[in-house]
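Quick board copy: two proteins, each given as sequence then tokens.
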Amino acid sequence: MNLIVLLPWLVVFAIGGCSWIPRAGPSTSEVLEQGQVGGEVLFDIVEVDDRVVATLQAQPKERLAVRFKQDAQPPEVKIAIGDTVSVLIWESAAGGLFSESPTAPTPSGGRSGVEPLTPEPLRPELRPPAGEFATPLPPTETGRPQEQQRLGVGNPPPGSFSIETAAAATGRRAAVIPDQKVGADGAISVPYAGRVPAAGRLAEEVQHTIEARLAEKALGPQALVIVKKSEANAVTVLVSDAGEISQRHNTGQTQNETRSGDLTSPTPRASATVAKVPLPIGGERLLQLIAAAGGTKAPVHETFVRLSRGEVTATIPMEQLVEDPTENIYAQPGDALTLVQVPQTFSVFGATGRNAEIPFDARNITLGEALAKAQGLRDDLAKPEGVFLFRYEPNSVVRALDQPISATSREGVSPVVYRFNLHDGKAYLLAQQFPVHDKDVIFVANAPAAQIYKFFTALNQVTGPVVTGIVTCHYANC
């Protein structure tokens, strides 16, 4: 009889005691109720179905090919102020301004005639470094360039020809104008031609100008202009070993800033390598520039590429650049290309087998994969109807979901809570399609019975020793 009287009281205490028993987070009903307070939307609650998944998957991604489509063609690499330029000049016959006079035998065996502008051999200070002249010379019948055949050497690696070799290969010595920088007036100095405009022009245009100015002074002059070093026609490539991309939880970028998902501009926070890669004639694409700068050692799915051009900046995953050939666009002079490693993570709380910040280990993962990484729902605690994903979404996405903009919306984003009912078998199919973003928070609420279970477990911790002592004493006749 005493137990029958006591049992209702225990149930009352159990139900009332649930409010003060510790738990991992709000209940399902509390999450649903807290979305609106006093008629004001604090965060949107979206029941996930086929339409919601399709809407999220249809959202456009940041694309370099679209953002910079006006620069789809390779750039014209023009000479700029400060560039280092070399000039070679040939004449069609000997005895001109830049060539030797015809030699004739003398009784003494000496040479007669006028010495050329550049004496034989080239002075060390005028000798250009090897490798500056990248245009291969015409092969001879033996398959080797003429100059190499004359010297009797084997085939060198590509790009190893110097200006001196190029001049000798023509069979006629050229006058080599010492290397010079394009001046502040945008011109270079050429003997007998004066100051020749160079800045903002192609090398071929400068060559024609030099030839035109020397036409009445030299014998059929031919000029070759070579840009040996150019700071303006280069791309700055910064490769960071580790870093972070600032999280604004929005796409409310300014005119000068775009984003991919929740990503804005990468901010290096560890060692970084900076290289200036010159652009060759014909242009260079982004992946080739990254390779020329040494590439990145970070996993591809953790690396992001940020391209800054003028007043526009865009960021995409490195994996997207590798997988989509249309994203591998031409670089332009003055571009800044940044590669930064950013580990993508999501956080899991509540009634799951593992509460932790978990890395993606891939470029894209779904909610189903995320729950699996968290060791699934606990069958002794979890409420399958109470699986929530918390995220800040751009206002454009909120409108596409037919949801009101939250009163707490800032900088073009609103908080959204997606709810999954895993009691429904179809929800597992939706979970396999629902994309998880960097810094998402997944929460699984407890079932109501879990709190009662915790209450009786706590009660047993207190009453168990007392009951055990009473029973022991009763049978021991103490």
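And the next:
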Amino acid sequence: MKTGFISSVNSLNHNTGDGHPENKFRIRSILDRIKKRDFKDLKWSEPKKFDEIYLKKTHKNKYIDDVKKNFPTKGQIFLDGDTVISPGSKLATFDAVSSIITAIDLVNNKKLKNAFCAVRPPGHHAEYDKAMGFCIFNNVAVGANYLIEKYKYNRVAIIDFDVHHGNGTQNIFFSNEKVLYISTHQYPHFPGTGSTHDKGSHNNILNIPLTAGTNSEEYFNAYDHVLKKLNKFKPEFILLSAGFDAHFRDPLSNINLKSSDYYEITKRTLAVSKRYCEGKVVSILEGGYDLQALAESTEEHLKAMIEFKL
């Protein structure tokens, strides 16, 4: 089976304005890099429409309605201090959600080995009832709820290696024993959450704060705790909040990972997935704001997914 690459041209039409770090060139840099690489075992797909009932399992109905009403017909508006929407944002936002659902269907039904979703806007800061940190809907959280509701999974793991803590994902699943949320992130750093004291109602939250300047060796020593928790949980499906902004080149962080480190992160995580869930892994893009670092790191991430053998 092949690795899936799910993306939508609509992601390029989410216009956040000049100078905004979360911009269309992020997706373009990834697409250009992957097309040049010409992976033979990569299957390109576009997202299909999804039932909004799964979005409503994740976000407050009023919030969803308010977001829909706020998409402008021209210009741009702010949902919060740094989350911008434009006329093209509506299709991009809903395609980001549908991408993870499409990927889950294809992987769960053995049409793909695993999959990566190259989407924007990102999602892990979006909370139950508000936008935050470039994020509108919490894509990975919708995916986890979809796995639980549609496919009746009881143990879904979310691993978030974005440099920023996924406060929205943590809050949505804080009391859900069916979801394990693990985050490695710079701390203290935006959004200011992610303390080791946050363990969830069912010991289903593991935060691994990293100090500014953390290097690759230190990061992988910390990542051993991710794998240990994952082995204990024995996931039936793994979702990755794949942010590539812990890279040393990234302008919004101070962690010093190299592009090749994302190959190793992915490889080690996939090894655990083989043990418990037949390699069922879907990854979705979160952050990463240096275009060269983002493109290189995504390529390394995909390389590990493609090379993985069940």
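Board note added afterward: The radius of gyration is 17 Å.
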